[in-house]
Structure formats: structure tokens, C-alpha cells
């Protein structure tokens, strides 16, 4: 087994990669508008009620129509997953891991096609789509290897005349609920973590990006995953989501999405339903209001570049995005001026065109929410770049910089999830850190400083799950920067980290008297 190493990103300045991506876009365009059934126990089920997936850069373009599960079909999927659990849990961990390695190999071969589908379905620019696909490969390779490490449990002590063991066994049926913003990586990572540990899965992808999730389930089948281990059941969060979260046979829920839905799931999952004989486990990765702090002793060009890239990459639609910057007053004007200049140089447009830095936001609801926050920002601060939007063809919002806001401003405290960054001034580094900590979230943060003492202060006191020094606050790599946050950012489950798989298993102690 070769050691884990993360999947390299594609260099699109190379002619051959550029050509390959354009060909992949053509391939995807060749299958736009197709219909996709549910997959329950390997059976394809087509429903009259359909979810239509649109291209957010071109509202007229249908990516695909996907059958929509209702409560009855969710119940059928639950029965299948529950039955399949009894056979899948007996399959050796090595074989389960092999399915992941094979799936990684298939995705590697179809890498640009998957990424091109992300460009069309989620509006991801080439580099962002490429990173999403690479991260999915990383999850498969990393979790496969982690399972091989954990398959014989952990060592414990034994006294003379005694043989003690500490093993991990699977939990049961897991409901995996994934978001649209990493529609391949997070959907795939959360699914395979559950699968490789011996559980069966009901996969409910986000309704705006269900087609790429269907392609993933097909890849798992091709890799040899038995029918019924992963069941593909797109549907309404309110109907299918609530039904499965409440279901007495649900053993755990792996959710990634917004704070409000995460809280709802956590609350419902805590209630005992008739026939339920366990406490449901909830893994919840939720929102963020992530800050880059700029110290007075800092590389100011690096600071501005980091803010702009982390705020506006994929139109700020990352839980890790820099949606607030706090800059020490000595360097405030200089950094703000450079952020303004860089932002004004960004091009926004159809992400199929490599020359556009960023594309649309995901849908009409996101467009409305983000533009209404821009209006709030006009009252709370001063807009120095962007502030405009256009939804005539797709949902385009220009990267927006709001400066001179107070730490208590709504644009400084609430997750906007779009290309909007709010900037506040602090009198010194300590005040900057206090402002950075004044949200209910605690996901990512970055500090740009050359002052070692301030860096160490931040290492201790900046209360976020992922803290970065002298770089931006997005782009965690599986196995290198395990990802997850504190407080309202979720259960800090650290996807892509050494403790993640254990969340999908329970430990069993056996003790034999010799
Ligand atoms: N912390 C992380 O790792 C992480 C990663 C990606 C995204 N996010 C967060 O996700 C959010 C954006 O994603 P989104 O808009 O898809 O989030 P969302 O909460 O609207 O939806 C997430 C998923 O939950 C489902 N859902 C909705 N209502 C439900 C219910 N009542 N019961 C069960 N499921 C339900 C949706 O259909 C979707 O599949 C942002 O807040 C972002 O910060 C967090
Ligand atoms: N893991 C990603 C963010 C995932 C949430 O949107 C990052 O580190 O940028």
C-alpha cells in the first residue's frame, strides 16, 4: 500500500489540460437534460415528482431531472438499508477499503468529466471544480487507509491470565445529508466514511446538485459496492429529511449544511421514537463566519491577496470563506485600498470560460439573500467594490467589499454565504483577536503577521477549528488539515482527520480469562 498523498491540482495553463477540460465540458453537455431515477437496493425507481437541476449560470439550461423520494420511498430505502446492514457489516474491512480505492481510481480516470459536471451543475470555476473532485479522491484514499489502521482495534493492556481486546464495530443505518457547495467531495466523503466502517447509507444530496451525486453512486456500483449499501434518495429536506431523522431505525445522521438545519436535526434526533433502542449519533458540520486578522507587522500584499482569494473563491460559497477581515489600524487604509483594487480586477461570468475568476451563486434564493445583505451593508458600512448583481441570465453577484463596519454589524456577524466581505478596524492585535472571536461560529480563521508572539497568542486564543497563519482561510486538505469547527459551526468532527472514522463506529471491549 503506497502511503497517502493528496491528489494534485490540475495546471490549466498547460495546453493539454486545457484541451482535456474543454472536451470534458462537451461530454457533459452531451448528456444534459437526462433523467435520473432513485436507487434503492440497486433497483432504479422513477417517480412522477421530479427535482429539476438547473445551471446557475444559465437558468434555462437543465442539467437533469431527478426522481424525488417521498416518505413511502424513504421507508422502502430504510428497510433495504437495514437488511443490507446485516450482510455488509460482516464484509471484511479490507474488502470495504478496496471498494474505496477502486472508486478513487475510476474518478481519477473521469476526473475532468466530474469537474466539468460541477462547473455546469454548481457553477464552479475550473480550478474550484478540480479541487472538489480531487478532495473526493482524497477522502476515498485516506479513509480506506484509515480503516486498514483501525480494523484490528486499538491496543489495550492485559494482566497475566487475561486477554483483552478493544475493537470497533459499525453502528447501523446512517442518513447522510449533504450540501450543494461541495456537491462531490463532501457528499462522497461523508458517504464513504460511513460505508468503509461497515454501515449502510441513505444518501440525500442537496436538491440543487443531485446529478453529480447520482454519478457518484454509479461509480460506487462500478467499484463493486453491493446493492443496498448506499441508497440514493434525493428529496425535500422537510419531508424526507425529517422523516429519516425521526426514524427509529436511523442509528446516526451525518449532516453538512447550515446552522439552522443542523440545529433542527440535532433537536429531532435527540427525541426517542417508538421502537428506537439507541441514542442517535449526530455528526453535524455547519456554517461559519470566518475572519482574517491582519497585524501591523505583516506582509500587506499577502494579507490583501489572502482576503480576496478566501472571500471570493467560488463566490464566497464556502463555510470556510473569509466573510470578515479585521485589520489593525496602523495598516488598515493600505490593506483596504489593495483589497479594493484586487477585487475590482476580478471577472465574474460563466464558469465554463476559464478566464472568469468566479461564476454565479447557486440559485434564486441565494441571490435574494446575498443581495439583501448587500443592502444591509450599505447602511452598516461603505461599499468600495461590487455591490451590484444581475440575475437576468444566471445568478451573478459581483464581489463586494464593505468597509468601516462595526464589530456588531449584521454583516460582521451573520453568515451571508456569498461574495461579500465585511472589514472592520481594530486598535491593536488584541482587539483584532477579540473581534475575530465575537461570533457564535468557530470554523476557520487566519492571521497574517510577522510577530511570533502574536502568532502564538492567536494559536491559543483564536477559537476556531481550523486556524491558518500567513495564508488564506480556505482550502483544507484531507489528511493534512483535518476540517471542522467549534460552537455553532458544528460537532468539530474533523473530516479528513485521524479521528473521523471512529465517529461512525462503536468500540467493544472483550476480555477473556485464559
Ligand atoms: N462545516 C462544514 O464542513 C460545511 C461544509 C459545507 C457547507 N457548510 C454549510 O452549509 C451551508 C450551505 O449548504 P446548504 O445551503 O446546502 O445548507 P442547507 O442546510 O440548506 O442544506 C443542507 C442539506 O440539508 C437538507 N435539509 C434541509 N432541510 C432539512 C431537514 N429539515 N431535515 C434534513 N435535511 C434537511 C438539504 O436538502 C441539504 O441536503 C452553509 O451554511 C455552509 O456554511 C458547512
Ligand atoms: N473544506 C473546505 C470548506 C468546506 C465548506 O464549505 C475548505 O477548507 O475550504
From TrEMBL:
Any one GO cellular component localisation term in the record: cytoplasmic side of plasma membrane
Domain Aldehyde dehydrogenase: 49-509
Catalytic class of the enzyme: oxidoreductase
Functional pathway: Amino-acid degradation; L-proline degradation into L-glutamate; L-glutamate from L-proline: step 2/2
Classification via PROSITE patterns: ALDEHYDE_DEHYDR_CYS, ALDEHYDE_DEHYDR_GLU
Keywords noted in UniProt: NAD, Oxidoreductase
Pfam families noted in UniProt: Aldedh
Catalysed reactions, as listed in the record: L-glutamate 5-semialdehyde + NAD(+) + H2O = L-glutamate + NADH + 2 H(+)
InterPro entries reported in the protein's UniProt record: Ald_DH/histidinol_DH (IPR016161), Ald_DH_C (IPR016163), Ald_DH_CS_CYS (IPR016160), Ald_DH_CS_GLU (IPR029510), Ald_DH_N (IPR016162), Aldehyde_DH_dom (IPR015590), Proline_metab_enzyme (IPR050485), RocA (IPR005932)
Catalytic residues (positions): 285, 319
Gene Ontology biological-process entries: glutamate biosynthetic process; L-proline catabolic process to L-glutamate
Top-rank lineage group of the source organism: Bacteria
The EC number(s) this enzyme carries: 1.2.1.88
A GO term for molecular function: proline dehydrogenase activity
Family under the similarity heading: Belongs to the aldehyde dehydrogenase family. RocA subfamily.
Listed name of the protein: 1-pyrroline-5-carboxylate dehydrogenase
Species of the source: Viridibacillus arenosi FSL R5-213
Top-level taxonomy: Bacteria, Bacillati, Bacillota, Bacilli, Bacillales
Gene from which this protein is expressed: rocA
